Amino acid sequence: MILLKIRVVTNAAADLPEEILKEHNIAKIPHVVYFDDKEWKLDVDISTNDFYELLRTQKIIPPTSNPEPLDFRDVFESSFEEEGYDHIFCVTAAKVLGSSTYSAARMAAKQFKNKITLIDTESTSGVQGLIALNIMELAEKGKTVEQITQIIENLKKESYLIGGFHTLDNIYKSGRLESKFVLYLTKFLKIKPIVKMVPPGTLESRFPGLFLKRTIITRLKKMAYKDLERDLEYDMIVSHVENPKAANKIISEIKKKIKIKKCLITFAAPVVGTHTGWGTVLVSLLPSIEKEHAK
Predict the structure, then answer these.
(1) Which of 3, 24, 150, 268 fits a disulfide with 239 by CB distance 3.0 to 4.6 angstroms?
(2) What distance in Å separates the CA atoms of residue 48 and residue 59, rounded to the nearest whole number?
(3) pLDDT tens digits along 262-276
(4) 136, 156, 176 — which closes off a domain?
(5) Cβ(89)–Cβ(9) under 8 Å?
(6) At 168, is the secondary structure helix, strand, or coil?
(7) Could you list the residue range(s) of the whole structural domain that residue 74 is in?
(8) pTM
(9) Beta carbons of 10 and 28 less than 8 angstroms apart
(10) Domains in the chain: how many in total?
């Protein structure tokens, strides 16, 4: 059997550490942000860390734009013609969250018949990152395109994403929250939203309430304990917006009761963190591909 050389392409909503992207040559299509009439490609013209530092100085959230079909086509074309790949898995955030990005990828893929498999993760953040990583690991194990597709479609049904926000400042700056009174009230009462991803990609508010900074860890931990299977092994990515202390604490707490095989920590993608604000913590889990059907 001839093994195909497979590549993964994803968009900037995926959370994966830079070293993992480089190790597996996973291509990430950048989103564009506009500062002072200048166009910056995230993680190309400006790093995630520098972007968040710059964001602190802004009174409004800078506008962003999603990738165009041409952005995907250029990467697809160079992957096939210059780097010698035989097949591409294009992994996108849930199309209900970013329909224009999904549509751009699908439009570009049509030019390469039967050579590109488009995966709608029905999620985002670390789930999207784990799916991209798992595809590469399955390809490296010699799995066929059909086998990889089936395994990923099964795994994504069991994906899990929860998150907590410490501030509504950026949501207010973005215009999604119009009332300054509500902003100040949530700060005074310490009301912090907690969300859960519900297929096919809807973020639903869970357990909003009054709590201190440290309590968000307890809330997220209890949700994971309640929702996840104790006898199943998971891979986990915890991403954050300048809150590594909380991210590491959550990892430590979840590992006490949930079986974790692979665990990664990283910055939250700017296209997510821009609106959720400082202190955001996102917890993403996906059943390990070491499950019996993936061996």
Answers:
(1) 268
(2) 19
(3) 999 999 998 878 777
(4) 156
(5) yes
(6) coil
(7) 6-156
(8) 0.90
(9) yes
(10) 2
